[in-house]
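Q: I'm writing a short explainer about Ca2+-transporting ATPase for a general audience and would like to include a description of its predicted shape. Could you first generate the structure from this sequence?
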Amino acid sequence: MEWHSQSVESVVETLDTDLAGLSNETVATRLQEHGPNELRKRDRVSPLVLFASQFRDALVYLLVLAALLSLAVGFLPGEDPGYVDAALIVAILLANGVFGFVQDYRAERSLEALQSLSTPTATVRRDGRTVDVPATDVVPGDLLLLEAGDAIPADARLVDVTTLETDESALTGESASVVKEIGVLDEATPLAERRNLLFMNTAVVRGRGQAIVVETGMDTEVGAIATQLEEAEDRETPFQREVDSLGKRLGAGVVVLIVLIALTQLVVTQTPPTLVVLVAITLAVAAVPEGLPAVVTLTLALGSQRLLARDALVRSLPVVESLGSVDTIVTDKTGTLTESRMVVSRVLAGGVVADLSDGEVAPEETVTPRIVARGETMLTDGEGAPEHEALRALLVCGALCNNAELDGAETVRGDPTEVALLRAARDAGVEPDGERLREFPFDSERKRMTVVVGHSDGETAAYTKGAPRVVLDRCDRILLDGDVVPLTPERRDAVVATTDAFAGDALRVLGFARREGVTADASVDSTDSADSVERELVFLGLQGMMDPPRPEVEGAIADCRRAGIRVLMATGDNVETAKAVGRQLGFDATTAVTGADIDDATDEELTDLVESAEIFARVDPSHKVAVLQALQSTGRTVAMTGDGVNDAPALRNADVGVSMGVRGTQVAQQASDMVLRDDNFATIRDAVAEGRGIFDNIRKFVNFLLSANAGEVLVVFVGVLLGAFYFPDVFGDGAEALVLTPAMILWMNLVTDGLPALALGVDPKTADVMARPPRSRDTPVIDGQMVGSVLGTGVLMTVVGLALFFTTLDVTDELALAQTLLFTFLVVAELTRAYLVRRHYGLTVGSNPWLLVAVLASFGLQLVVLYSPLSAVFHVVALSLSAWGSLAVAVAVFVLSSVVLSAGIDRVAPATPS
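A: Of course. Here's the predicted structure. Afterward I'll give you a sentence or two in plain language.
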């Protein structure tokens, strides 16, 4: 129901309740009917299911096939089952699963710890008595009793208020506290303006009130958002789609390879069928990069750990890379771009406009020239107190006419506006003394508050704050030039003009005044009215407040834009506030799109709006989702940041959802892919840079692994064909017909290639990682450039390696020596290839010490195979110095040829923004 358009009497009748509260029997019945007052929680994923999910992609299925093929070789005549080969592949699969499982499990448990909060309670009236009950036991019809500091447990219709204000930023995005009232509103009133309703997951910051609960649990506004999340489909990240596509393409390539090789051997060389099957299966196993899943997973896991060290908790490994492909960030304002706290940023005191945000005083000569015409510097003296008496008097008034509590830098209680006034006085070194004798509280009709204070010197004074024009109407003098002078019409107009200038910059402006010499009768147990005290006041000045931008955000946004990433603001705040904050952060604030504009726009018009505007104000959850879908329809990869309940649907539907860990609600965190533990937008910039660096590294080691596999496949295939023509006596029907044995191929794939590939995964980011535009979401890991690089490298390895092999065989007639030289050449060539794939990224040899260690370790393992009893297992011989000389010449030819032929194709060209 549209409860805001119902009268109190109608609500009472509809819910069959009264202002004395429900009976316990009625509560029990309604609790059974409506269920507990809580949001449905997502089922906890069991560790077994989480572990099994690590094996659901095409590349893993391909490796399982490779393991089965290794075993299948043993069923051929004269061959043994490849138990060792199959066991190694399975071991890699398990290692890959463990890497991913540990990261995902730790992320889920870390999020649970982040969200572990005590169960809130609610104060209600039941059976005519006031009692505290668990919030989960609140039912429709309950009468809530609320005061400052209370969390609101359910949606409720107000029936009584006393200066009640609530913080609804988590639900609506409204940064300022909302003044509540009990009147009936129009049915079309938007959510952010329903001032006669209270909402679940918001809080009272000032005053007190009573309200009848109208909706609980999933029927609340927060519950409606949670329902949208449940209905949203799980989505794959761009990188998950790429890896799956890579596995499918490799699988198709393996099938084509087997068929091609089999037909060639049967038709061209008339090879016996048994040998054809052996060669085809062996080459198919060689073509599969067994270490690729483990290297990808470990690279992402290490990237997630680097992000965690920077306070970014990644909930799913592929998201680390996906951040690198983001080309648009849609960010909430309150708490994400701003500090989510009110701060006094500008004051008018003694005729001077002072900018308190940076500790300096800036004369505003173009505004109110009658008063603001001088540039006196309001600095602090050695004891930290302002020298300027007018500024001190203004801050004293703000601190005394105040019901907030401030204990230290962070512990606060009370209305955010009053907390800001206390902080401004404290930061200026102002510590007013005095005992409050009487208070005339603020309400929506008076629009002002006054306190009477007795000071230690025996003097009594009244201090007033409120709407500037209301306070001015009570004043007949003004503090100016250190003296109290008449408040002439010209001076009054100047103050009003300054007020309008402050408001034009989206500041929340309050006026301040005092009256000295208030009599004791007017302050202690007096029946005098507020009107008798709030008269003949001296106007002290203005204090303008705002939720300030985080200091590091402007630079982070600028970095994102230099990287070709659009940054858009979507907030529930009003248009002027959004524009003011946007201007400070470098947004184009000339135009702003509102939620009403989105409602009225067609799909085509909305697409035009999201491509032209940077600020979206007064938007609700459905508007944010509409903006995201419009952006995604144009091919953009969109990240959504936010912390409120209202952000959750957009977080869930975005390509990458980023929530806040400190100010973020549980609903938002559950809907996101990454949680910022420091709520810092700058961390998103770092995450994007990390993601881009990871994509570069993935391209490097995919290029490296596929180049090695392509070389091995071509060497064996072409070697068998050439051997059948030129050395028919050597390449007969026996196992020696292969220029490389299956054991040699598996050694290179799993050990020699594996360690360098892992090391490439931790290569440092390039200096220009945030200076190039984002890659298109359609850009695959393996593109045309990489295909050319892989095939070119494979051909070079084949030409140089087989030249070495057949020359040695022709001169020495020793097959074992020729095989050993070819085997070792490929190992060394692949190790040098690890450096060749990174040379175009501007990285030096010493920039990655882990790669150097991996290359030396792999080469050392190769020496162990050559000069230890393992040589019998691999059917190799120890190489002499002369053999090493021939090998060195072959490697030099390969490296020089690679440098010449691969120039410009080993590095991905900057992608055109999608």
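A: For your explainer, you could say: The radius of gyration is 36 Å.
Q: Perfect, that's easy to follow.
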